[in-house]
Design brief:
single chain, 439 residues, globular
């Protein structure tokens, strides 16, 4: 094994590192949040439309459940494409520049999202419509994989040692804000428009908004990555792109275990956002617009949970905080079916609120738990690759699997699915501890 591999960080808590440049973490935080907000907005706009719109416009030849399952199959394509996007754009980063990588990736992400707004329906062009939807969804995934800029790792490394948990959660606020914006826009349009107008043109408008958000996020990030002081800081922290194959070859255990640690988090991610919207729309008389309102409120609670995770991680350590969150998610899995399958809207709303609170508590530290497993020289690429695999395994197929299970076997199987993710996370955390003693 190479020398860098022998020095790899296997723990979940970063050791203090000295900063050669006086860069305030607060200066990094805003572009990081903006970048993650734009990315998650693009993805949640698609995810909500995959429930409310795409089954009926692109798969009208199937019954509603089968059409939604087909829509979720297309939804998964972006998670398959994401690792490919990382490989492509890491090469762009090495051979050209980080700015070129960011511009190309974000234009691909934004362009794919906006292109979906112009797609014709199945009634207009037949099978070409779902094929084009799949192509642009795959394009979203490629762009998402390439949008990794290393700023979250830089933020964590630049933070004071006793505040690393707090600054580690900052990028994850973008997920809560992105979902809040996407959910809020669909709530307004489903409330303000008739069903005919919404299906004809109203659903397309949120996809246009992606342009404005991505442009603002791109310039906010470029202001950092192209400036000499931040280039020097990236060099000092050794946050430079390495070859993906080299990173996996020298850090196989870190990649494998790192991808399993956030499994409960990423399974929970879609089981409280996209899946419950589909289940409620298909199997209950709960109005979709009202449920979007519950999801919006849940995203606010999720944001508060993310911030709480930063406080807890600085007090009990990142591993302890992730372990607590996984145990709570495991407990929640036994109540998921009774709450979501409740005959009252209050039960389903409780499922959303409690689920988002636990998601925030877990998500706030999940990403940096991956990054902290690599020493600086491999952290930039290692964090991206491991995160890609974690999202693919944990979240990519979650709506498809959950809806398939509940439609065939019953809603309680969604709880079993969530429980399995919590058990894998706890096992990975325990195995991660043993790795620390095997250097």
């Amino acid at each position: 094994m190479s020398e860098p591999a022998q020095q790899a960080t296997t723990g979940l808590d970063d050791a203090p590192e000295s900063d050669g440049l006086d860069i305030s973490p607060g200066k990094i935080a805003f572009p990081v949040v903006m970048g993650r907000t734009s990315e998650f907005f693009d993805f949640f706009v698609y995810g909500i439309a995959a429930v409310l719109v795409f089954p009926y416009l692109f798969f009208p030849d199937s019954d509603p459940v089968q059409a939604t399952l087909k829509s979720f199959a297309v939804f998964s394509l972006a998670f398959i494409a994401r690792p490919i996007g990382s490989i492509i754009f890491m090469a762009v980063d090495r051979n050209f520049s980080r700015a070129a990588k960011l511009i190309g990736a974000l234009f691909l992400l934004c362009g794919s999202t906006m292109a979906i707004a112009f797609l014709p329906s199945y009634a207009q062009v037949g099978m070409l419509a779902p094929v084009l939807l799949a192509v642009f969804r795959f394009g979203q995934g490629l762009g998402w994989g390439g949008a990794w800029d290393g700023l979250p790792s830089l933020l964590s490394l630049s933070a004071p040692a006793n505040r690393r948990g707090w600054y580690a959660m900052v990028p994850q606020l973008g997920a809560a804000i992105g979902f809040m914006l996407a959910c809020g826009m669909f709530y307004v349009f489903t409330r303000a428009l008739s069903q005919e107008d919404f299906m004809a043109w109203g659903w397309r408008f949120p996809f246009f908004v992606a342009l404005a958000l991505n442009v603002v996020a791109l310039f906010a990030r470029l202001r950092l990555v192209v400036t000499p002081e931040f280039k020097r800081l990236f060099d000092e922290k050794e946050l430079q792109p390495r070859r993906v194959i080299e990173t996996i070859r020298t850090h196989p255990r870190q990649v494998f275990v790192g991808a399993l640690i956030p499994l409960a988090t990423y399974a929970m991610f879609h089981l409280v956002t996209i899946f419950p919207l589909s289940w409620t729309t298909l199997y209950t008389d709960h109005d979709a617009a009202d449920f979007l309102g519950s999801l919006f409120l849940g995203s606010v609670v999720g944001g508060l949970g993310i911030m709480l995770s930063g406080v807890l991680a600085d007090r009990v350590g990142r591993r302890g905080q992730l372990g607590i969150a996984a145990v709570l998610i495991g407990i929640f899995s036994f109540f998921a079916a009774p709450l979501l399958g409740s005959d009252t809207t209050g039960g389903r709303t409780t499922y959303v609120i409690v689920g988002f609170a636990l998601l925030g508590l877990s998500l706030g530290q999940a990403s940096n738990a991956i990054a902290s497993r690599f020493e600086s020289i491999y952290r930039y690429t290692g964090a991206a690759v491991t995160s890609d695999i974690a999202w693919l395994v944990g979240a990519g197929f979650a709506p498809l699997v959950a809806l398939g299970l509940c439609s065939k076997f019953g809603l309680e199987y969604v709880g079993y699915y969530l429980l399995s993710g919590a058990l894998v996370t706890l096992g990975a955390l325990a195995f991660s501890r043993t790795l620390e003693t095997v250097r």
